[in-house]
């Protein structure tokens, strides 16, 4: 296996010889922030393994509205649904920062999973996790208002730092990105965040969101 | 064989539209090899790189004029063009994101 490639996620647990086989059949690609990895409606020719950086998977609905589907970090696999079903990619994937990927042609993916059942198990596990994620997303969009969705999303991404509970805002976390992620628009998101600030649950800063009342925010997320 | 997706839509319409858009871009700009095209639900998605803002605008207009196209998401990179990763909400009534038509 290439010494400078470190696979995270479910692939990290695979035997070294399988990881080496994956890397051997892959092309290493780099993308800069804002660059498109693949487009919604393109033929499913390649599967991607994210080695470093963050990407977002978005989808334009038949009505023309953009919805963020996934924000993915190192170790994530994407393009798999299209590659395994043979239908065009269901969404567009865009680099949010400098990213490095392993890119595997569809035919090579099929060869690899035929020759290495453990790899097929890893893909099944990843797909199963994604089904759970989308079930939870549907529940969020159907049953919770914007403030509740913000509350739960912030708690999910919060990190403890010097006795403070904070959600770091990456350079690409603009209000538009956050709004798209939460299935709303910028104005509604701004109002909802202001409302949560007024209630004393959080404080929005330039580089982070500080959670002031964890239990209160959790209650708000489940109302 | 006709490909029907999970929502019962005939995928062949989008496939045909994709071929037509690629041909139209090739004919008009002579640069389709550098562009990527995806089509779903009659909405065209464009990516790749072009040398000027004029070509960027032309690619969007050319794609939008292909019969059957309902809208164009232009994520082509070009000097002076909007960021490819921006959030896009299409106004399908005007059949173009930037109101070029």
What does this structure look like?
The complex is a heterodimer of chains A (223) and B (101). By secondary structure, chain A is of the alpha+beta class. Chain A has eight helices and twelve strands. In chain A, a hairpin with a 2-residue loop joins β9 and β10. In chain A, α3 packs across α4, α5 packs across α8 and α6 packs across α7. The longest helix of chain A has 27 residues. The model of chain A has no long low-confidence stretch (mean pLDDT 88). By secondary structure, chain B is of the alpha+beta class. Chain B has one domain: Histidine-containing Protein, Chain: A (2-Layer Sandwich), CATH 3.30.1340. Chain B has a three-stranded mixed beta sheet. In chain B, a hairpin with a 2-residue loop joins β1 and β2. In chain B, α1 packs across α2. Classes of the chains: A alpha+beta (223), B alpha+beta (101). Chains A and B meet through β7 and α6 of A and α1, β1, β2 and β3 of B.
CATH class of chain B: Alpha Beta
Q: How much is the average pLDDT of chain A?
A: 88
Structural class of chain B: alpha+beta
Structural class designation of chain A: alpha+beta
What string gives the helices and strands of chain B in order? HEEHE
Largest sheet of chain B: 3 strands, mixed
Number of domains of chain B: 1
Low-confidence stretches of chain A: none
CATH-defined architecture of the largest domain in chain A: Sandwich
Kindly state the number of beta strands of chain B.
3
Shape of chain A: elongated
Major sheet: arrangement of strands of chain A = 1-8-3-6
Order of helices and strands of chain A: HEEEEEEHEEHHHEEHHEEH
User: What is the CATH superfamily of the largest domain in chain A?
Assistant: Jelly Rolls
Distance between the amino and carboxyl termini of chain A: 49 Å
Overall pLDDT score of chain B: 84
